[in-house]
Design a protein that fits this description.
With about 650 residues, the chain is of the alpha/beta class. It is built from 21 helices and 24 strands. The protein has three domains: about 1-60, no CATH class; about 75-155, Sandwich (Immunoglobulin-like); about 165-660, Glycosidases (TIM Barrel). The longest helix has 23 residues, at about 320-345. An eight-stranded parallel beta sheet has the order 21-18-15-12-11-24-23-22. α1 packs across α3 and α12 packs parallel to α13. Pfam families: Glyco_hydro_77 (PF02446).
């Protein structure tokens, strides 16, 4: 089985990992073989295994240069693989798009690797060449042995960097925004109001939830982290009354007022009724498209055509459905308008988009790229204290070998689509660019293992696209993170993501503000943990009990654990010199004191959750549940204007203290 063991390695199938308990776990042969079978490999066909091993291990040495050639700008080294006896003569590199030409002697390089095959020694040689600007360039290489073609990726040393000054911003789930004028769900006009209020209080960014397209016909599927397509926007975020077609049509205005009336009762409820909201909103969106078709002007036609050309790749999945394409046009316009407004109002970054780790298994994105995915393998997480069997997130797993197809075009387009009209991109579960936990069935039992991805190329794409789009990058690195990921993130200027709830030392005590790592986006909480008001008062545990997620025996145990956590937080305050709180203290005052202390940290970015400013008692999401609790539907209790009016002095004090660091 030596050939199979070699293929495990070459195909990225992990050998072992360290469990959360510290236990060293080695994956058994059966589990690793199943991961390969999910990639379409017949593990009983020895001839096929030998052929794959040749293609992945030996063939690259027989080709002078691969389809993609990475040239790091910090050293400008072009790497080629040649038979040792061909290391003579002159080589020439030509890039037509840049009118670039560079010649060098084949004897001038440094040998950095070797391979012996059928009596011939092949060597990998690095040659210093002239600098190439950031980007991807079709390149011709002329050697005495002939002409070779590749695509050179000129890779900057780091991602796009914003000003080093410590900053403060707001995080929000866009759909939760409440206003008199929206149609029951937060939209881009609400986002504009949030931009104006945040900027006027000294905030430098707004961190958004993933804005990905969801499922129009299945209103129960509303998780932004299990989308229909990550390269397209959710049309429900379009502000109907913000569109030119609305302004020009009395009929649409009349229907808008009727819809507002019909939605009035639901808008007072704590949870969005997606079926009702979608019925009214899609009716109005249809009317906008019909008006556009009937009243097109040359200027609008030209702008729409330009949009279709620019976004041609992600729009392909809509099968020339012009109505849906028009909605994407409107959504993109409005998102872009919000970003422009944020910069015009003095924000350093503006909007930060969020890229989900995967798409749903029956999604447009999956079906359009089916060949890139493994079969019957899902993305998930290894066993942890909350899920001893591991977690299956239900998202299809990309095959690491197929991901290389067409020069990594899939991942490149994914990044480009999500960097449009924003100043930053948060990548959910950034460890995915290095490895992902795969879940699959082995003889009827759920099993799993880590599968490794082409890390060097995916990091290169991140750095290139970040610089080309001038978009800063944040990697959500919560949980078990391979050390090489953190190291590369630090070198590449990719910020990490810290949740205060989880920042503890070896004794389980909360880490003091001055000891929190600096190159991070620091938050108290995010969408997967309760808002502070709920956490301090234990309301999230009561909610879990009400929804039968905790039984009568488990509730007192969880309340006792929370009581211990509150004791830890009080000790944290005491060490910071804040000693006037106890476990009965007002949640709002405790929260404001917590943020005031965290503002003194060296974290590059401090993020205040709008849920916490709204003093929310209800979680927006309870991990591990689907329809048991109304995830991704909870609204804010107050309007944006009211929230900022009520918290004006507090927000100003935090943003000013950050700028004074």
């Amino acid at each position: 089985m030596q050939g199979l063991s070699q293929l495990f390695y070459l195909h990225g199938i992990g050998y072992d990992y360290t469990k959360y308990t510290g236990e060293h776990v080695v994956f058994d042969q059966q589990t690793r073989a199943q991961a390969l079978r999910c990639c379409g490999v017949d593990t009983t066909d020895l001839a096929a295994i030998d052929k794959l091993n040749f293609e992945l291990d030996i063939a690259p040495w027989l080709n002078v240069i691969g389809e993609v050639c990475l040239v790091e700008q910090q050293d400008s080294l072009l790497k080629m693989r040649l038979p040792e006896h061909q290391l003579n003569g002159i080589a020439s590199v030509y890039i037509k798009a840049l009118n670039y030409e560079h010649q060098f002697a084949l004897t001038s390089g440094a040998v950095i690797g070797e391979y012996l095959f059928e009596g011939t020694r092949y060597v990998e040689v690095a040659y210093q060449i002239k600098a190439i600007p950031t980007g991807y360039f079709d390149t011709d290489i002329y050697l005495p042995s002939g002409k070779y073609q590749t695509q050179v990726w000129s890779v900057p040393s780091e991602c796009y960097k914003q000003a080093a000054q410590p900053s403060c911003g707001i995080s929000v789930q866009l759909y939760t925004l409440a206003s008199d004028r929206n149609l029951g769900i937060g939209d881009f006009a609400d986002l504009q109001e949030l931009v104006i209020q945040s900027a006027s209080h000294g905030c430098d960014y707004i961190l958004l939830n993933p804005l990905h397209m969801l499922f129009k016909e299945q209103q129960h599927r509303v998780s932004p982290y299990s989308p229909n397509h990550r390269g397209l926007l959710n049309p429900l975020y379009i502000a109907v009354d913000w569109c030119d077609d609305f302004a020009q049509s009395d009929q649409i205005k009349h229907q808008f007022e009727l819809s507002l009336n019909a939605l009035k009762t639901n808008k007072q409820a704590p949870f969005i009724d997606y079926e009702l909201v979608s019925e009214h909103k899609y009716r109005l969106l249809d009317m906008l498209y019909q008006h556009f078709k009937q009243h097109q002007t040359p200027k609008v036609v030209q702008a729409f055509a330009c949009f279709k050309r620019e976004f041609a790749t992600p729009l392909e999945v809509l099968n020339n459905d012009e109505c849906q394409i028009y909605w994407q046009y409107l959504a993109t316009q409005q998102l872009n308008r919000c970003q422009r407004l944020s910069l015009e109002n003095g924000m350093a970054v503006g909007l930060i988009n969020d890229l989900a780790v995967g798409c749903a298994e029956d999604s447009l994105e999956f079906n359009a790229n089916r060949a890139l995915y493994a079969d019957k393998a899902h993305v998930g997480a290894p066993p942890d204290p909350w899920a001893e069997a591991g977690q299956d997130w239900g998202l299809p797993a990309l095959n690491p070998i197929e991901l290389r197809s067409n020069k990594f075009e899939f991942f490149k387009q994914l990044l480009r689509s999500n960097m449009k009209s924003v100043g930053g991109l948060r990548i959910d579960h950034v460890m995915a660019i290095r490895r992902l936990w795969w879940c699959f069935s082995v003889q009827g039992t759920l099993q799993g293992c880590y599968v490794y991805y082409p890390f060097e190329h995916l990091i290169a794409l991140l750095k290139i696209e970040s610089q080309l789009q001038q978009t800063m990058i944040i990697g959500e690195d919560l949980g078990v993170v391979p050390p090489e990921v953190r190291s590369v993130m630090l070198d590449a200027n990719i910020l990490g993501n810290v949740l205060f709830y989880f920042e503890k030392d070896q004794n389980g005590e909360f880490v003091q503000a001055q000891h929190i790592r600096s190159q991070v986006l620091l938050m108290v909480a995010n969408h997967d943990v309760p808002p502070f008001n709920a956490w301090w008062q234990g309301e999230d545990l009561i909610v879990k009990s009400q929804y039968k997620l905790l039984d009568t025996q488990a509730l007192p145990n969880e309340q006792s654990k929370r009581d211990n956590e509150k004791d830890r937080l009080l000790r944290w305050f005491e060490k910071a010199g804040v000693e006037h709180f106890n476990k009965q203290s007002d949640a709002t005052k405790v929260y404001e004191a917590l943020i005031t202390q965290l503002a003194k940290s060296n974290a590059t970015m401090l993020c205040i959750q709008l849920d916490d400013l709204d003093e929310q008692d209800l979680p927006v999401n309870i991990p591990g549940t689907y329809l048991e609790y109304p995830n991704w539907r909870r609204r804010l209790k107050h309007s944006i204007r009211d929230i900022f009016t009520n918290k004006s002095d507090f927000i100003n004090s935090i943003t000013q203290s950050r700028k004074g660091l």
